[in-house]
Amino acid sequence: MYERILVPLDGSQNAEQALKEAIELSKKFAAKLFIACIVDEQHYMAYGYGMAAPIDFYDDLKQRSQRILKDAETVAKEAGVQTTTILADGIPKKAIALELPKKYAIDLIVMGKSGVDALSRIMLGSTTSYVVRHSTTKVLVVNDADDDQE
Predict the structure, then answer these.
(1) Are strands 4-8 and 138-142 parallel, antiparallel or unpaired?
(2) Structurally, how many domains does the chain consist of?
(3) Of all helices (H) and strands (E), which one includes residue 38?
(4) pLDDT tens-place string over residues 35-65
(5) 100, 97, 99, 104: which is closest to 135 by C-alpha?
(6) Residue-range definition of the domain harbouring residue 92
């Protein structure tokens, strides 16, 4: 049913739950798992740097994303799932909804319902809601385990 599953990660609890779900689906369907982190260009604007963001700021975002990818790849491979990691620069909601599914022929996106950056959600809108509205690929939205108890 699914051959290529994309799970975007941002370090949040919801993303961690999405990774667990994506791994289970990948095992069930013998699908290849694509784990992505997008270094968010919007942070440059949100913090007033424009396109002249300090190199340290960019490097910090990139290093954090690389750690997230490495940890997720380890978990997926230990579960026996064929995995590809993607580190990209861009606007996360557009990359997840449109660019990555097209580039990697993704047939399912599995993502958490909210991420780590509340300020960006308020200012720019939820990445998840954007992906649900704009993606032509099927999207599975996963709640954080704590959300189930509310």
Answers:
(1) unpaired
(2) 1
(3) strand 32-40
(4) 999 998 665 554 554 555 556 777 888 899 9
(5) 97
(6) 4-130+138-143
